[in-house]
Amino acid sequence: MFVAVDLDDASRALVGSEQRRALTHVREKASLRPVDPRQVHVTLAFLGDVRSPLSERVTEAMASPVAGIAPFRLRIGGLGVFPPRGAPRVLWLGLQAGAREMIALQSAVARRLGALGIVLEDRAFHPHVTIARWRDARPSDRSMVGDDGALGAAAEMTVDCVTLFESRLSSEGASHFPLAHAHLSPNP
């Protein structure tokens, strides 16, 4: 299970176009595996394998509004890689607007999950949209991304809810299925 901001169809299409452009530039010299554009999102919390009865409690918790956080605009654009040093593993698009709000939203989701006893990774949250992963990378692959971090916006949308997803693996890759939606509500 994981909690994420799902992209709307228009943003998903624009991110897919930016992904194709970026992979054309980078892929010739690197072993990148693209993420299916229909599956792109901004992950807020990765829960891992959650079994019953906790899975039902998580689904119920993620079906109630996120109070105190109003809907906000999100602008996606600019390439980057994770980790920050060494061989890259992830090629991503960052946020050019809405990062502060996304960080507050992630914090609210983490508190909600923490109240259920779920412990999340203890590292700084960096909101992004993963567009590809390296199978085999070397530190020199980082230079193939170039200066694309300064590119214009790839997509823009309003964030008004978060979604709890179940991820199912198959030989074709992962498929994500929505289980619950928590709408943003400016009123506490």
Describe this structure as you would to a colleague.
The protein has a single domain (2-185), classed as Cyclic phosphodiesterase (Cyclic Phosphodiesterase, Chain: A), CATH 3.90.1140.10. The protein is built from 3 helices and 10 strands; from the N terminus they run E-H-E-E-H-E-E-E-H-E-E-E-E. The protein has helices spanning 9-26, 54-61, 99-114; strands at 2-6, 31-34, 41-46, 66-67, 72-82, 90-97, 129-136, 155-159, 161-170, 173-185. The strands form 2 sheets. The protein has a 5-stranded mixed β-sheet, sandwiched between helices. Strand 5 and strand 6 form a beta hairpin.
Write the layout of secondary structure elements.
Elements: E1 2-6, H1 9-26, E2 31-34, E3 41-46, H2 54-61, E4 66-67, E5 72-82, E6 90-97, H3 99-114, E7 129-136, E8 155-159, E9 161-170, E10 173-185
Parallel strand pairs: 4-10
Antiparallel strand pairs: 1-3, 1-9, 2-7, 5-6, 5-8, 6-7, 9-10
